[in-house]
Design a protein that fits this description.
By secondary structure, the protein is mainly α. The protein has two domains: 54 residues, Homeodomain-like (Arc Repressor Mutant, subunit A, Orthogonal Bundle); 130 residues, Tetracycline Repressor, domain 2. The chain is 73% helix and 0% strand.
Length: 192
């Protein structure tokens, strides 16, 4: 929706219902869900869907963007509740879970990969920034080794999660992530 005016309460509810229905459909494996079906699940007319999202691809993009925004809000909350190294460990596992979510949306996301959408570049930047925040907090606390950047750690985790086509990949990814995390802690004052 291109208008800069705030949405009325009912329009905001409709938009959220559409995003929720689309998310549930895509993550539930219904990657080919048509806009009519998504609108029906949200309890709105197809015209309402198109008032909020000009195309199905725009809806898919917004679902993914919302997922990434929620994911990348986690570090601040984690740091309020846990020590920096524990916050990093938990966020690394959230990233593995996000990769599983991404697998569920993969076919839907393919529809926007051919566009000029900045959604993937923005998502990578957000995730790298979130990791940098946690790495900096851990380095300052002396519980995470210095010299590792958020983008580098994100690439490593991307490599781990790239095996998502194999059976049992998520358990293996969690195990490899634990090894990666141990390496981030190795040689710090808290572990020597």
């Amino acid at each position: 929706m291109s208008s800069s005016r705030p949405l009325r309460a009912d329009a905001r509810r409709n938009r959220e219902a559409l995003l929720s229905a689309a998310r549930d459909a895509f993550l539930g494996g219904d990657t080919d869900a048509h806009v009519e079906e998504i609108a029906r699940r949200a309890g709105v007319a197809v015209g309402t869907l198109y008032r909020h999202f000009e195309t199905r691809e725009a809806l898919v993009e917004e679902v993914y963007r919302k997922e990434v925004d929620e994911l990348c809000a986690a570090p601040a909350k984690l740091l309020e509740q846990h020590a920096p190294h524990e916050s990093l460990r938990r966020f690394l596992l959230l990233l593995v879970d996000h990769a599983a979510v991404g697998k569920g949306m993969a076919v839907a996301l393919e529809s926007i990969m051919a566009t000029n959408s900045p959604v993937f570049d923005n998502a990578r930047t957000q995730m790298a920034d979130a990791l940098t925040q946690l790495l900096d907090a851990g380095t300052t606390a002396g519980t995470i080794r210095d010299g590792v950047t958020g983008p580098t750690l994100l690439r490593a985790l991307g490599g781990i999660c790239a095996m998502h086509a194999t059976e049992g990949w998520q358990d293996a990814a969690r195990q490899i992530t634990a090894i990666l995390y141990d390496g981030l802690r190795y040689g710090t004052p808290q572990t020597t």
